[in-house]
Amino acid sequence: MSEIIHYQDPQSRAMRTQALLNFYDIPHKNVLIDIRKGDNKSADYLKIHPHGRVPALSYDGQVIIESGAITLFLADLYADKMNTPKPGTPERALLYEWMLFCHASLEPQATLGFNPETKARGQAEVRRLLEGMASRLKGPHVLGEQFSLLDVILYTELAWYKTIGLYPEGLEPFDTFMQSHHERMKPA
Ligand SMILES: N[C@@H](CCC(=O)N[C@@H](CS)C(=O)NCC(=O)O)C(=O)O
């Protein structure tokens, strides 16, 4: 069996990759890289991740960095289990669209949320961006009728925005999406 080693800190972007590994029960070894203690800047870890960041994932010795790249790699590796849409289909485009929306459009707003002076601006921006995506969330799942890894991805992202106080409560269909997926996503 292939060996997967996940280098992570639970309070980091590694929550994305951890959520997928846990939810789909993918055998892996977790290595804690405590960024508050500076583990990520050790000489040994810098050989794994050249920027000293988390997450990183080693697959049979090949290291993959960037949470988005790791997610897409796992999506292909466990396509059946995760109901990953096939390449070249409109559903697959939704995987790219939601992931890049989360990583490239939404995520820069998160940094605004960490500064009390810019938090309100961050909240307004996240609301505006999600309002724009509202009509694209088909429901009950991101792909429509079929549950897939896209639900795990979106739920994990939005749960994080809730934690950092940037989730726009009262915005449909996202409230319904979060409520209806809550039970399933709860850690066991
Ligand atoms: N774009 C990268 C960002 C990774 C990243 O910035 N991780 C943060 C934690 S959320 C980190 O490791 N920070 C430690 C540092 O930069 O020193 C990804 O999505 O994997």
Which features characterize this protein?
188 residues; alpha+beta; Glutaredoxin; Glutathione S-transferase Yfyf (Class Pi), Chain A, domain 2; 2 domains; 52% helix; 9% strand; binds glutathione
Can you describe what's shown?
This protein is an alpha+beta fold and 188 residues long. It contains eight helices and four strands; from the N terminus they run E-H-E-H-E-E-H-H-H-H-H-H. It has helices spanning 14-23, 43-48, 67-77, 79-82, 90-113, 119-133, 149-163, 174-185; strands spanning 4-8, 29-32, 56-59, 62-65. Helix 1 links the parallel strand 1 and strand 2 (29-32). The chain is globular. It binds glutathione (GSH).
- Please report the first level of CATH classification, the CATH class of the largest domain: Mainly Alpha
Element pattern in H and E: EHEHEEHHHHHH
Task: Characterize the biggest β-sheet.
Answer: 4 strands, mixed
Distance between the termini: 25 Å
Question: Can I get a quick summary?
Answer:
By secondary structure, this protein is of the alpha+beta class. It contains 8 helices and 4 strands.
What order do the helices and strands come in, and which of them pair?
Layout: E1 4-8, H1 14-23, E2 29-32, H2 43-48, E3 56-59, E4 62-65, H3 67-77, H4 79-82, H5 90-113, H6 119-133, H7 149-163, H8 174-185
Parallel strand pairs: 1-2
Antiparallel strand pairs: 1-3, 3-4
Glutathione is lined by residues 12-13, 35, 40, 52-55, 66-68.
